[in-house]
Predict the 3D structure of the following.
Amino acid sequence: MCDPAAGGCKGGPCDTCEPENECDIVSCVDDQCVHNESCGPDLVCCNEMCVNPGCDDGDPCTDDSCGGPGVGCVHEPASGEACDDGDPCTENDTCQAGVCQAGTPKDCDDGNPCTADMCDPQQGCVHMPLDGSPCDDGSACTMGDTCVQDTCTPGAPVSCGDNNACTADSCDPQTGCVHAPIDCGDNNACTADSCDPQTGCVNVSLDCDDNDACTADSCDPQTGCVNVSLDCDDNDACTADSCDPQTGCVHDPVVCDDGEVCTLDVCDPNVGCLFMEQNGISCDDGDACTINDTCVNGTCTGMLDPNC
């Protein structure tokens, strides 16, 4: 007969039924010893001889363990562990004395100025479009930007005109209006380049006149003004060529007088002064003791005065 309460079967085929370990519950079935029919309360046993179905209760806020035979699973309150309080509007929830406590409110800001950001305890973060609301599309070149279907849509272009004909007006999306001075250079050294804010570029021809009548004034587009000294030589040997800064070239006649009465003084344009001998012309040799002085072979020659 089998009496499990008495520790097994006694006085029969099962009289050798004894627990094999502290977790063993022995019974006698059909005169056969049956071990591990049950592992005790909660079907939990902390012995390798007994299969442990596990004490994890799925609650992160409990420290789960096995209390041993006859005790079963033990779930002690835990603190500090991460958990989920079931509210999608909180984050960083933690266990406090076995209870999951809400952490910090969830930040639902999506950085979009065209949505109203909030948190629904059922859905979590919700972003509602703010159509028609003013916004900033991030470009300094638009104004009056508005929200359309949760997107910031550029408004009208910014007017960068500064009413100055000497600037090239444009817009940089990062910095805004740009007024760059225009280059009025025409690559011509014979013009003075400038800019009039009302009319734009002005390229005035240079005045290369150096107020010197002795220079020929001109302009080279590559180098600018050229002032070349005049050549006053008239290729006439009978003129003395010079230049007056006020009036220009001067051609004064050459004086060919050699002071001799017995020469004919003339000027040849090719060779200059010529002094030609004259004969038979009355002259005065400067000697008071001569008379009838005449030119002979270009020399004034007289006859001795008998009265001297």
User: Anything to note?
Assistant: The chain has no helices and 28 strands.
